[in-house]
Amino acid sequence: MNGTLEHRHGLWTHEHHHHGPHRHARLPIRSRDAADHHHDHHEHGHSHGRVDPAILRSRAGVGAVACSLGILAATAALQAVVFAASRSVALLADLIHNGGDALTAVPLAAAFLARSERGERWAGYAVVTTIFLSAVVAGVESVDRLLHPRDLDHVAAIALAGVIGFLGNELAARVRLRAGARIDSPALVADGHHARVDGFVSLGVVLAAAAVAVGIPRADPIVGLAITALILRITAQAWRTVRGDGSH
Question: What sign has the CA pseudo-torsion 81, 191, 206, 232?
Fold first, then answer.
């Protein structure tokens, strides 16, 4: 080893003993280790509360995210109508889950309109806090229903709401995956796969409705608690992302 380090300034790469990020008069772009270049293109994952800069640089990326979040907001709104009539806690947890994903439009709008990382960060904190408080409500309601089970009305409508959740997430996934492939955004592709998994979470509501229909009333709060646990896990991941502790 000759003790030199390879650095990248935009399109330019060179070697010398200088450690850490720096600039040169003829290379005004701030440097980074060239070894990090390959890593940057492959480290990605789903996150709530912060927006991938590559998406903001692309009108197609912003449009895809906005469209998919609109789909999830409409999905949560339809589920909310059924919840108001049925009071299913499994459905409540799922609509909070889908509504929480839709709330990520807040930091997206903050980052896009203000071009402010600080504004995006505080918007992310607000989103994470809202999702956490909503998850606590869903958890408390699920525990109460587990201790005091009662018959559910509109079981067929609850199952339909679960199917709506599945279809909404699948449509949002396709929008994100197609746009992610078009603009070469690993983060958007990861978000698409995440939305696809969320669709199967919504099918848990269908399972709960079927179980209640055959005489297992505690299936509703059990599924509600399972989805609440998932929301709390996502909330913890989102909190770390907003603070800058990690991308997952």
Answer: negative
Between 234 and 78, residue with greater pLDDT: 78
pLDDT tens for 146-162 read 998 888 889 999 999 99
Question: What's the per-residue H, E or C state across 168-237?
Answer: HHHHHHHHHHHHHHHHCCHHHHHHHHHHHHHHHHHHHHHHHHHHHHCCCCCHHHHHHHHHHHHHHHHHHH
Greatest alpha-carbon span in the chain: 76
Domain boundary assignment for the chain: 5-40, 53-243
Q: How far is CA 36 from CA 20, 42, 177, 247, 248, in A?
A: 12, 10, 26, 16, 19
Instruction: Say if residues 49 and 128 touch (Cβ distance below 8 Å).
Output: yes
Structure confidence by residue, pLDDT tens digits, 34-72: 444 444 433 344 455 555 665 666 677 778 888 988 999
Determine contact, residues 31/22, Cβ cutoff 8 Å: yes
CA dihedral sign of residues 170, 175, 181, 187:
negative
As a whole number of angstroms, the distance between CA 134 and CA 177 comes to 28
